[in-house]
Amino acid sequence: MSVITVFNGLFSEAGVVVKRVVDATGYRLVTDQEIVAEAAKLSGLSEDKMARAFQAKGSVFNAFSHEKERAVAWLRFAMAKKLMDQDKLLFSGFASQLSAPEIDHILKVCLVSEMKERLAVAERTEGFAEKHALKLIHKDDSDRAAWVESLKGVNDPWSKALYDIIVPVGTSGVDRSVDLIVEQLANEAVQVTDASRTKVADFLLAAKVGTVLATEGHNVLVAAKDKNVTLTINKHVLMLERLERELADIVSAVDGVDSVETLVGKGFHQTDIYRKMDFDIPSKVLLVDDEREFVQTLSERLMMRDMGSAVVYDGESALNLVQEDEPEVMILDLKMPGIDGIEVLRRVKSDHPNIQVIILTGHGSEKDRQICMELGAFAYLHKPVDIDILSETLKAANEKVQGIK
């Protein structure tokens, strides 16, 4: 049987339409939550990290951690496994964009309404005022646009090129929208064939290879056809042949792969540098210090050692970033205006005990050291600090983080 994928705009009555399509066809609904849960189970990563991949606002650490790319690899694999093992499925949500466009028996549907119609639905169904509804719609549209662009390279999430059918629910009405989708299921173009099943198998193999590469810290585009895998490198790398050999060695060992080809993509000659994720080196280090020149220089020196870092200049900003984008290791000054370092340490270890906090101060006393260690600090260092000593301390903290995961 054909598969349906539904992508939608917020307040376009997609929930009602999808439910009625499911009732009319007997298809099983697969939500984003189900794909996220399955991907988390397969990868060992948290569901929160998986779901964060759908957000437009990326992690400040992502250039080094590749967290979003790793999440996408596992989400794609989770979807591919379902496509391979089951039929009569309707994928609704962000995950609907994960499938390979060449799989013919997937009916790709977009449900969206004009803004005035979406605002009317928001008021009628949720009681939202126009200003609040607009804010929610713009945020959701931004997330969806960023998601589609990252997967498809298209900056318009409602582009006709992405779908077999775009249904304007606001003008068509729910009943007619349902009828249009059900009618299209009978279209010969979306019927299952041997060729389309082979494309699902290719998609599954490519997704599997993607997770293997992500686990090894690599991020390249993967395609497969008849057990032959093509890897496309889209960022500049100094030792290209060495990277190609490493990638080929990893992928050749994957069960089901007969051959591996590496290519250079369109983005290879841009300024972005290819970075392999090194799990032995911390990639999510938050530096908290009100001495701006010092902390910016320290961040640059850590980046030269391939450690991903972000900088904030006060305790309140540190606590806000921890809530939005949890670092793995924090380097924290004690004497800062507003919320001081000891209070930041206390709150961080209370709410996020897995974050390892290294105190780096030029003014702390022995009593401060005792308090910090009792609160759970990983280490207590004094300024000025030897960069090699700090680097080794960071690596030791990272080892503890990796051991907790």
From TrEMBL:
InterPro entries: Bact_response_regulator, CheY-like_superfamily, P-loop_NTPase, Sig_transdc_resp-reg_receiver. Gene3D superfamilies: 3.40.50.2300, P-loop containing nucleotide triphosphate hydrolases (3.40.50.300). The keyword Cell division does not apply. Residues 284-398 form the Response regulatory domain. The modification 4-aspartylphosphate is found at D333. Keywords: Phosphoprotein, Two-component regulatory system. The keyword Phosphoprotein applies. It comes from the Bacteria. This is Response regulatory domain-containing protein. It comes from Pseudodesulfovibrio nedwellii.
